[in-house]
Amino acid sequence: MKLHVLVDRLSLSHICGSLDKEAAGVYAGDLLSWVMSHAQAGDIWVTIMSNINVAAVASLTEAACVILAEGVQPDAETLQAAAEKDVTFFSDTRSVYQLCCSLGSALSNE
Amino acid sequence: MTDAGINFHFDVDGEDFSSAGAASVEVKKNLRQLGFPPDIIRKVAIAMYEGEINMVIHANGGTADVFVLPDEIIMVLRDQGPGIADVSLAMQEGFSTARDNIRSLGFGAGMGLPNMKKYTDSMEIETELGKGTKIVMKVKV
């Protein structure tokens, strides 16, 4: 599913990055090395971590995008890194669990 | 090792988390330009990043050298940090000596060295307490 479809279906708040990427799955987690060990390329990464290293990990794992849950917002440093690395960020006030449920439903009904 | 392929050298700053990962990102970009398959690039970039982060967290920085050969990519990470007291323990998933301020950034999961091993075809660690650590990782192409 393309991110521009996803953002409409879930009413996500788009922070930065391309909406033309393809999302194939979902991974939720906040420990960066754990994410690098288990997330798959093309995953939507749901997290409450918003520091600059999140942009690097999203780029290295080839995540389709990062969704910051629970209303978390990235700082300017993270946004700059996201722009440099072409990482797409969204934010949302829903919990990680609620977002994963909605994402799972959206992807399975594609 | 250095004569047959393309080499990259990076200095990794210690305690600088804003630039941590710079070497990995650069290697990823270079390998992409050289036309390597995405799965190879992903493995090399993640292994490099974990190595970089370890040097930033534990060793006040170090150096990273990447040798791109026709049949394999070799990463050599060197630091002059405290060394690893028990390598087999450090290789266990979940074991970490990272401080709380590091954990608050999302690191310190105890997955760094296991991830480096997971994403490479071979990994050798030479370490001496009080002197430093050298890690050689290879990814077959």
Please tell me about this protein's structure.
- The complex is a heterodimer of chains A (110) and B (141).
- Chain A is of the alpha/beta class.
- Chain A has one domain (3-108): Udp-n-acetylmuramoylalanyl-d-glutamate--2,6- Diaminopimelate Ligase, Chain: A, domain 1, CATH 3.40.1390.
- Helices cover 43% and strands 18% of the residues of chain A.
- Chain A has helices at residues 3-10, 32-38, 52-60, 76-85, 96-108; strands at residues 13-16, 25-28, 43-47, 65-68, 89-91.
- Chain A is globular and about 35 Å long.
- The termini of chain A are close together.
- Chain B is α+β, with helices and mostly antiparallel strands.
- Chain B has a single domain, classed as Heat Shock Protein 90 (2-Layer Sandwich).
- Helix content of chain B is 34%, strand content 28%.
- Chain B is built from five helices and five strands; from the N terminus they run E-H-H-E-E-H-H-H-E-E.
- In chain B, a hairpin with a 3-residue loop joins strand 4 (122-128) and strand 5 (132-140).
- The longest helix of chain B is centred in the middle third of the chain and has 21 residues, at 38-58.
- Chain B is globular.
- The mean pLDDT of chain B is 91.
- At the A-B interface, helix 2 and helix 3 of A face helix 1, helix 2 and helix 5 of B.
